[in-house]
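TL;DR need structure tokens for one chain.
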Amino acid sequence: MRPPYPPPPERSAELRRRFAEEARSERPDLSTLCLLVGAEADGALDEAGMDAAQVELDRLAGLLPYRPGGPQAWAVALRELLGDRLGFHGAPADYQRLESSLLHEVLVRRRGLPILLSVVWMEVARRAGAPVYGVALPGHFVVGFGPDEGQVLADPFDGGRVLTGADAELLVAGATGTHLDPSMLRPADPLDVVLRILNNVRAWAAARPERSDVALWAVELSLLLPSHPARLRYERAQLLVGRGDFLGGAVELEAYAEVVRAVDEGAAERVRGEAHAARAMLN
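>> reply
TL;DR here they are.
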């Protein structure tokens, strides 16, 4: 399969407008945001393709049994449908593919990163009426069902395997070397999920300097979210300079220096020096 490439500028501008609007709505829709990310990544994903992905999520939800029971029953029903019957799961090789971070591709391939497979689980379960949410464990995203006192966790990357407390402890210990803290089990906000997906895209692109175009749009979408790390502006500036947009990079560096100045004048001065150097490259 060809690597996905971004759409033309006019299409990209419209997608970004819709992404920012959805992200700032009262109840941001996770599947819509993920599909807008997918359309920004893959110029071949048009409106019909985005609609088809939503229809597929609806179809999968319709295959679940009607109200199977409590959190454990929901987790088992999702595993039996999506994992056992339909083969949604992940593998180490999926970390090497940009498609593994794109919802429309994950729905077709039935393979992806833990967080995208979790999005499939959440969106299918939500449509069917399940008490479902994402759980952003350090280094590994899973889904949760039910309230705190009766929470059931499942790992979509492992085909929806229902996790015991010891399983969750092992996942956290393997990622961080520390113990599982109850705060790690809180439901993840949809916008935090989207930011984490974009972080994965940036990590993929960082390992492939020839795809700085991917890194740039991932940073720029992240900056459209209502809450984001300020340092993303510095990353965007570096990408612009690296891609030959010295003036755009210098302007962004100067703006970031103003943000930093309030807390660290020395760091701000260093960033202003980088801006000066970028402008000098125009000569």
